Task: structure prediction
Amino acid sequence: HIVSDGWSLGVFVEELTALYPAFVEGRPSPLPPLPLQYADFAHWQREWFQGEVLEQQLAYWKQQIEGLPPVLELPTDHPRPAVQSFRGARHPVTVSAEVTEGLHALSHGAGVTLFMTLLAAFQVLLYRYTGHTKFAVGSPIANRNRADIEKMIGFFVNTLVLRADLSGNPTFQVLLARTKEAALGAYAHQDLPFERLVDELQPVRDMSHSPLFQVMFALQNAPMDELMLPGLELQPMVMEAGTAKFDLTLDMREHGSGTLEGSLEYNTDLFERATAARLVDHFEALLEGIVSTPDRRIADLPLLTDAERHQLLIDWNVSEAVVPPDKCLHQLFEAQVAKTPEATAVSFEDQNLTYAELNARANQMAHYLQTLGVGPDVLVGICVNRSLEMIVGLLGILKAGGAYVPLDPSYPKERLAFMLQDSGAQVLLTQVALLEALPASDIKILCLDRDWKMVAIQSKKNPINHPQPEHLAYVIYTSGSTGRPKGTLITHGNVSRLLSATQVCFHFNEDDVWTLFHSYAFDFSVWEIWGPFLYGGRLIVVPYWITRSPGAFYELLYREGVTVLNQTPSAFFQLAQVEQEQPDKIRPLALRCVIFGGEALVIDSLRPWFERHGDHRPQLINMYGITETTVHVTYFPLTLKSAGTVDARHAMRGSPVGRPIPDLQVYLLDPYLNPVPTGVSGELHIGGAGLARGYLNRPDLTAERFIPNLFSTTPGERLYKTGDLARYLPDGNIEYLGRIDHQVKIRGFRIELGEIESVLAQHPAVRDAVVLAQEDSPNDKRLVAYVVADSDVTLSTSMLRNSLMETLPDYMVPSAFVFIETLPLTPNGKVDRKGLPEPDGSRPELENTYVSPRTSIEKLLADIWSQVLGIKQVGIHDNFFDVGGNSLLSVKVYSKIQEKVGDEVSIVDLFQYPTICALSKHVMQKGSQDLSFQGSRDRSKIRSSRSATMKQKSEVRKGHRSANKQTA
Ligand code: AMP
Ligand code: MG
Result:
């Protein structure tokens, strides 16, 4: 290919067809000598491409490329490796004669070529996969627009960077006009060689992707006769090169039979075969849709095959007909009281209440509250410390027929004041000790301790009340993105159906011991309280200090024989750490299940736990959920196998949350509410019996977030828009990707912070990590990683950085690392992102000022650079490519390093570590990395797995090296 191109092949066939018979018969060449040679063309091109011609073409391309994202973020199966390997495969594409004919007719009618129509269709596909509305697709062009060169064999082909603009959700017809304009503009400026463009534009060098575009489209139309030679039988042979030049290349040609045939070449580091096959199916479906309805808006054109649509919307949402108990929570509780009156219902420190005792006290409370006018849908505030009274109070409010508004006393006074006022509660239950912390208001206050005597004179009988399952049970306030909390209205029916629908998964029973670990103002607590009460279990109210002390909590789990544990991942990792750090403290726990919820779980961090406890006892389960849909939505049993592999290439990008629980439906939709295909990220929408009534006093917001269910035939059904991104894995499990508003852009790259966090967590010495994008100044963000390191390991910024550089593209490697002891948690036990410390001002790794070489290896490298680059002074933080380096010079540097240092550095390393500082650290580390694990005995396992990875990695590197030798 370096001396010829596709068009040349046609010329070659033509010439061979003429020459072969002539030579066989002993005749001289029948072909006239060529008037020009390729060298003449090359000479002419150089002369011509100067001054104004060059300037004018460059100006055009610069303007075309301006504002395009540096990478088209296709939803890949595997994270993008730091260095492209160009491993690839192909999948066939066929367009029926009927659709092909339709495409021809459409093109004709719109005054465009078939190429333009196919390109526009491909752009729609890419838009639907990525959400990008502006991006570039590369396309080869024969570049034989002068008659003299038409019959020449040589490398004339050029690559055009075709700008796609799909903004504003145009119809396909309108898009076609835009595509035509861009293509015509490109043809008019096709002479500027692509490599020249790259040279001039100097896009950031990044080994993880090709510059300017990563996806190519080609419609082959070079003339090519069939090769026929006398006395020979010839057959074309298709070669599987096993390579991919780009992330994706769609290559099409018209076939004699009236069809379009072609292939999709895909990078196998990024995509699985099945994913490429789906993409091709989607393209074919899209073409069909375009032919039949070219006036449809591009977001609404069909993409899914009927089978996939059925799978996504119906098969993966099987709603078993769960009959919800037609009762209120306290009525279900009363049924349990009748069954096991003497069983312990709740314990706090050394106090216990049996079911009968708890029932009696709650009844007295309820009767009293009824005298204050509490009844169905009446809200009652409750602000109490963890205690038995808390449970009596909650139950009493429900038994009175009302709904509780939990006010966590640790919340700031203003927030409490807002919630009290917004809820319009007329009665507040509290304790004397908290009176001072409460905002002033004219609400009726009842202290559960001081005023109990008024309650104690009430009847102990179950009160008669009339709430129905559709009446409110509680109103929990969640933070709004605007900063104003909003009260979510949850009914009895919402909660009772949750606990009956999930019973097939958990089989809760009278032997279960649960903890109330979470704040009762966080809806995880609803599950923690009603789980035991509806199934006859025992509830341990965990004292506040113990919730904040993992060691003490571990002891409590052991002492009380807790069987069902609910935790945010952040809290659980601190608990698991107790075992890891103090092996002498390991106790036989009675846990049978641990349920995660509330925030993304980085499964890889569970590995040590699985290694100690195995897969099934306890069973770990990840549940995704939201206050607005009543605690839990999905269910995913975790195993060591699901914890991924050590190899980052196979690691998941997000966090698997499984499938919807039996009476809920999940839909992953694009911004136009169309279902996204498997593997493509979309916003999670939830339908079914868990949906809240809405927000208190916020009809506008309720209408915005609770929308009509487009997929239901039952009138009045709604969908809740979660603001979370997720995608379907091919097996139907859902992978949570993050909050839509957590997505950040840095230098134009769209970044999922969770992806960096999960790669960090795979480092054997990292216990926990959080990554934030920090605004340095407006428009200038940088990534900061907060890392909790394993305590018996020395871990440095450069070790982490180097390890991340092995697996993540450059733009995803944080520029600052902050080591902290533990991650701060919110009152709900989720990571408190706002509570993370600022990194200190020193940014040594980013310093661009001149620093002279310090070590002998730095000096040696700096000498080589200054020789090759012809400059006097090279600082250790100077970027090779900023101070005049280019890929040819890097080959020189490489061979000089080989001479002096030996085989330590590959040419790829020069791109990956483009400063003296980074490169010398890399060289040093190759020999010494394992020594930095000064070990305690349980390190040995990690070390051996680590050296296994090191070995794999060095093999990969050797692969690069030999590949590069060949190229060089
Ligand atoms: P809240 O309403 O306070 O419970 O917060 C709900 C949000 O927490 C969801 O929208 C998710 O962003 C996040 N979340 C809850 N459970 C999970 C989970 N299992 N994995 C990842 N994120 C979760
Ligand atoms: Mg919420």
